[in-house]
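Q: What structure does this chain adopt?
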Amino acid sequence: MGVYSRRGRGSSGDGPGYALEREVEDLLAVRAVAGDRAHLVGHSGGAVYSLLAAIEAPLLRSLVLYEPPLHFERFDPSIIDRVQAALDAGDEDRALEIVFAAIGVAETEVQMLRSAESVWERLRAGVRPVPRELQTGLQAIDRLKALDPPDIPTLYLYGEKTDTSIFATPDEVAELLPKAEHHGLPGQRHLAFVFDPTAFAQAVLQFTTAHDG
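A:
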């Protein structure tokens, strides 16, 4: 299993001309190294990039998507300006609070993240690229509306308490990804891999193991 840092995050470098296509190209490059029969797992915006990459290069064993914002047309673009203003003021904490509120992370969950100092510091370090990444979500709206799902075994994972409108309901997912299996994680919202990593991992491993042939 491999996990990579997207451009501008972690130990990955950056580059000019940032756009939705660059994110998809990066993912396709990682997939090429992993091999054509890899399993691909993506969360949130990363799940959008994973879905678009799978459409371009469908030689995958399986595709697991955790709450991609399939209805980003419902996103309030003024939030991007608010996040950028907080970052320009040097207030990464406020920027994170704005982002978390926009994606439906509960205040109790935010406080739990804050209480884990090392986790919060990594989040603060990774928030600077968020405005441009949100802009890529706006760029993806038309492509998602015209989506032709790849013919790959697909699992749609979601938190059963997620109620933010940019994330599709199970019924909406059935229309957009009619062949996908669904798996809800009880008591979870958008960050189940943080707050219930065991349930998240079990769901992913159960699905990918079933498609290892």
